[in-house]
Amino acid sequence: MERYRELLLSVLLFVGICLFSGAQGRGQDISLREALERALLGNREIRKAEIEVEIARSALRKARENTFSPAMTFEETVRLSGESPEGFSLELQDTISFDASLWEEEKVSLERAERALEATKEEVKKNVVTSYLEILKTKNTLALEEKSLELLKERFERLREGYEKGEAAAFALQEAEGQYREQEGKVRVLKEKLRLLEERFFQLLGEEIPGEEVTFQPLPQRLPAFSRDLTLQDFVAMRDEVEDLEGQRRVLEAQEAQLRRKGLPQITLEGTYSKDGWSLTAGYSFSAKSLDIALEKPLGTQGVSSGEHFGVGLAVSWSFSPSLSEEKKQVELRKKALLLDLETEKANVLFDIREKYLSLGEAWNTLEGKRMLLEAERERHAQVMKQWELGSIDQVTLLESELSLFQAQVACENAFCDLLASFVAFLRSTEQPILWETLFPQEGDERT
Questions:
Q1: For this UniProt entry, what is the primary localization, expressed as one broad class (predicted)?
Q2: Which helix (H) or strand (E) holds 270?
Q3: Given this model, what pLDDT does residue 108 score?
């Protein structure tokens, strides 16, 4: 009884020391959800894309302001009659244009910048998820290799004891030592690789890597949700490359409309109103969709009529340019070439989407297979444990069985990470956003 009491006290003391040391050197924890939030706030590429959006908005505001451009002109006329000036005039003229083609290019640029910002955010989120998965996989692999190192160390020490007793050959001892040293190097390289992956991960967050150890929390073991409401063809129009070409097509169509108006008669409705020397003239051009307003007040007295006067007129003009037909032809040819590029890009995008979809299905099947292998390995290890309890196998055989079970567990966890990585690659190819409820749906909400 006293022996068990001492053993219990020793175990409690050991556990207390472990908990204390773990609390002292645990470092910081980070989850995938927290990492995504921090990346949206601190990533440098996102901040740069936000600046580009502000630049595009400023350019659009400038284009719209230029369509209302008041011009104030002071015109002085001096006529000598004797020794005094006889007339001065003041003219105020405003031009208001409603030509939508003046805005279209800047509007498309703003839309492109806004899409680029959203695409950058999604790309950063997908890179964060991928980097997080790589770190988890590397940590799993490192744990597996460290366990293998323990087994090789146990085997090497047993052979060394046997060699000292004359029960083991020298070549067997050298072989065991070589395997042990090789495994040591593999573990060391994996630790350095893990450090590099963590540095790249925190770069995505726009942060410096902490000096203390970081614990990456495990992911919820739930299959991602994939809806079949949209077909693969529907995803093609969502790609940025296709949307950019569609925006260029709209610009060319606006240029076509502008050139067509140049070849039409210019019809302007003019109206005048004057009273007590003030003269107001307004003209609206139907073809250019512009309004010109002029207000004039002579400062002198000569030629100023009293009373109220109204006037309405319709002016028709037509101009011909020999190069107009060539300009139309160039725009039409550019549009045809753009449509060919658009069809080619759609075909390439569809091929990429189908390829990622097939990889996603393959990863899904791999995970199912690894889960079945894990269950079989658990049953096999349970049989080995019974043999160990009966004393029919040695400790090395038990350690090998534990290693095999651990390998199956790591393979299953890495297959789940590969599935998520394939799912993220599919989302990237279809320009779909990263949503937490899509990656890790609630229980019963998994769709395949």
A1: membrane
A2: strand 266-275
A3: 79
